[in-house]
Write a structure and sequence with these properties.
By secondary structure, the protein is of the alpha+beta class. The protein has two domains: 110 residues, no CATH class; 209 residues, TonB-dependent receptor, beta-barrel domain (Maltoporin, Chain A, Beta Barrel), CATH 2.40.170. Helices cover 19% and strands 36% of the residues. Strands 5-6-11-12-15-16-19-20-21 form a nine-stranded antiparallel β-sheet, with no helix packed on it. The longest helix has 14 residues.
Length: 371
């Protein structure tokens, strides 16, 4: 099976018809060869019995009835989904208020060390969050179990198939050819094509959307949340080694970058700042007037959750090493300089935001002429 679309244009219960699902499973199963089925089940099936077995398993002969109940959910950070009770109304946006208290220090220690430290605390009331999915999706987390149980009943109610399975059981006594065993094996064969517990099968939306020119749509909206508090620290240092060389180090920290429904006071909702809690950068720089310029720096970005419209997930932590070298040719060619910058010199493939492409090593060669 290569996936499926299940669409109704009338009001129906939330869930899926198991007979419809089995029809799709059978369409894929009937394409398998006897050798493929034998290898998957670990049994030997006589060539003469195989086409009869396939025919008896058809939805016309093995009738599968029943309904798998669906649940409503919204995408969750880190994958999967959060179960919700129903679609909810969205209040108009309110004015957001932010109160921030900040203290800092900037100075030079020992005529060589430059230090800047900022500490802040921020309170935001009626914080306006990023775009969020507001159209609930439908999950069928018990689909495999319910399909196997309904198929077992269909097998029992098909005497011809039950007799054929009894013959196979006698020929393979160490295998399970009971109705439950065969139903479980068939469901397992189709497992990678069936929706998983966190795979959406439908979207809940206004009935008017079904008649629109674009068809079904996911609805996104902004929300106001309750009060949130967080604090952070930014530290920047620079050490003067000599007239030409410097070392630097920067560190940023934020106390909280994800707020659950309890922190927001808004059941079923969550908020991410879409930024890491820890960021570190350090390096060395050498610069000689009308001569060589060289620098090396390392950056570490802590993992962080993202919840911004369709971009939901976690950005893993990563470390990048950047190297640059340049030369001012002013002594021989006034106004001309050449610079080579290699970002991510270790070629650490990473993503800097959910949905963004992977980035690797990036090299830039630049010639600048100043009039």
């Amino acid at each position: 099976m290569n996936g499926f679309t299940y669409d109704w244009n009338t009001d129906v219960p939330v869930g899926m018809d198991l007979g419809f699902i089995y029809g799709l499973v059978y369409s894929g199963l009937s394409q398998l060869t006897r050798e493929e089925v034998e290898a998957a089940l670990g049994v030997s099936i006589p060539p003469a019995l195989f086409p009869i077995l396939v025919d008896q398993l058809s939805p016309e002969n093995t009738v599968v009835e029943g309904w798998v109940d669906g649940v409503l959910a919204k995408p969750a950070i880190g994958g999967g989904a959060n179960i919700v009770s129903d679609a909810t109304s969205i209040d108009p946006l309110q004015r957001s208020l932010t109160e921030t208290f900040e203290v800092g220090y900037k100075g030079i220690l020992g005529n060589r060390l430059l230090v800047a430290v900022d500490v802040y605390r921020s309170n935001r009331k009626d914080f306006t969050g990023p775009l969020l999915f507001e159209s609930p999706i439908v999950l069928v987390p018990t689909l495999s179990e319910d399909l196997a149980a309904a198929l077992a009943v269909g097998i029992v109610n098909n005497p011809s198939l039950s007799g054929l399975l009894a013959t196979l059981q006698a020929a393979n006594p160490d295998r399970d050819f009971s109705a439950e065993g065969v139903a479980g094996a068939i469901t397992a064969l189709a497992a990678d094509q069936l929706p998983g517990p966190s795979d959406p099968v439908a979207i809940v939306q206004p009935a008017e959307n079904l008649d629109g020119p674009l068809g079904p749509e996911l609805m996104l909206a902004y929300r106001n949340f309750g009060d949130i508090d967080f604090w952070g620290v930014d530290i920047s240092t620079r050490f003067i080694i000599n007239d030409y060389a410097q070392a630097f180090a920067n560190y940023s920290y934020v106390s909280d970058n994800f707020f659950d429904q309890d922190e927001l006071g808004s059941p079923g909702n969550q908020l991410a700042l879409n930024a890491p809690r820890h960021k570190v950068k350090a390096g060395l720089k050498y610069s000689k007037p009308r001569g060589l310029l060289a620098n090396i720096s390392g950056r570490y970005i802590d993992e962080f959750p993202v919840l911004s419209g369709p971009f939901v997930g976690v950005v893993p932590s990563y470390f990048l090493l950047d190297v640059g070298v340049g030369y001012d040719l002013g002594s021989s060619a006034p106004g001309l300089r050449v610079d080579l910058l290699i970002q991510n010199v270790l070629d650490n493939e990473h993503r800097e935001f959910v949905g963004a492409p992977q980035l690797g090593r990036f090299t830039t060669l630049r010639a600048t002429y100043s009039l």
